Amino acid sequence: MIYLPIPAGWRHYLNGIYRRLYRQFTSPWTKLAVLALLAIFATRKELSFSLSINGGEWFGLAAPSVFGSADSETSIASLVGYTPEKREWTAREREQLNYVAQYGNIAVSQMEDHGIPASITLAQGILESGIGKSTLALRNNNHFGLKCFSKQCKKGHCSNHSDDHHKDFFRIFSSPEESYLAHSQLLQKDRYRPLFSLDSKDYRGWARGLSKAGYATDPKYADKLIRTIENLQLYRLDR
Fold first, then answer.
1. What is the mean pLDDT of residues 197-208?
2. Is the pTM value of this prediction over 0.90?
3. Is 58 exposed, middle or buried (0-12, 13-18, 19+ CB in 10 A)?
4. CA gap 194, 212 in Å, rounded
5. Backbone angles phi, psi at 64, to 5 degrees
6. 233 in helix, strand or coil?
7. What is the spatial distance between Cα 130 and Cα 60, in angstroms, rounded to a whole number?
8. pLDDT at 156
9. How far, in Å, CA of 30 to CA of 138, rounded?
10. What sections of the chain are H helices per DSSP?
C-alpha cells in the first residue's frame, strides 16, 4: 500500500473543516431543523396518499370519478347517450352523475324492454341505493329496496337487515343488472299499471303515480324524484 504524504498545513486545515462540520451537524438547532423537514415531508406524502385514494374524502374510499377529463359531460354522454348542459356541478351531483354513468345504459335498456322512463328508474336507483353506497346496494346488489315476501324462499335469496319480522327481508341479487330487471318486473303489477298509460316522457306523472301507488312511504318521494331528474337533466334519456 502506498501512503501519500500530506503536508502538516493541509492536515491542520482539513481537521478544522471536520471540527466545524461536526459541531454544525451535532448542534440542537440542526437536529430540530432536520426533524422539521422530515415532518413536513411525511405530512405532504400522507396528504398526497390520502387524496389519491380518497378523492378528497378523509373517511372511506370514494367511487372513481368520471370528471377526470376536461370534457367530463362528453364522457358521460358517451356512456349513457345523453348530454347534460354544461354547468358547475356540486360534489353530490358529481356522485350522482357517476352513478348515471355506471348504470345509465341498464336503465335505457329496461326502458326499451318494459316502457319505464329511464329517468324514473335512475332517479329511483339514486335515492333507494344512496347513490349506490347503501348496505343493500353493496352487499345485496339491491338498488331499489326490493323486499322478499316469500315465506319459503331458497337459501341466498334474501337477507335480514333489522329484525326477525319477515317484511324486513330484502332480496339478494347476483348483479345490479338483475336488480334493475326485478324493478321493471315489479312495476308490471296491477297497482302500477295506470302509469303505463302516461306519455313516455311524463316523468312528473310517473313520479307522482309511483308515490300514489305506495312505492315508498315518504310523502315527499315524488318531489325528490322530480328534483333529481331535473337537477341531473335525466329527462334527456326518455323517449
1. 96
2. no
3. exposed
4. 11
5. -60, 140
6. coil
7. 15
8. 57
9. 52
10. 8-25, 28-54, 72-80, 91-114, 118-128, 135-140, 176-186, 203-212, 221-232
For 13-38, write each residue's pLDDT tens digit.
666 676 776 666 676 777 777 777 77
Residues 71-79: contacts with CB under 8 Å, at least 24 apart = 75/101, 76/100, 76/101, 76/104, 79/104, 79/105
Confidence of residue 45 (pLDDT cuts 50, 70, 90): very low
Give the model's confidence band at 55: pLDDT under 50 very low, under 70 low, under 90 confident, else very high: very low
Please give the Cα distance from 122 to 100 (Å, whole number). Answer: 7
User: How far apart (Å, rounded) are the C-alpha atoms in residues 5 and 31?
Assistant: 36
List the grid coordinates of 30: 440542526
Q: Which residue has the cell 313520479?
A: 207
Under 8 Å between Cβ of 235 and 229: yes
Cα–Cα distance list, 173 to 170, 180, 182, 211 (Å): 10, 10, 9, 25
Give the tens place of pLDDT for each residue, 111-137.
999 999 999 999 999 999 999 999 999
Residue that is written with C-alpha cell 473543516 in the block: 17
Query: Is residue 203 classed exposed, middle or buried when 0-12, 13-18 and 19+ CB atoms within 10 A define those classes?
Result: buried
pLDDT at 2 over 70: no
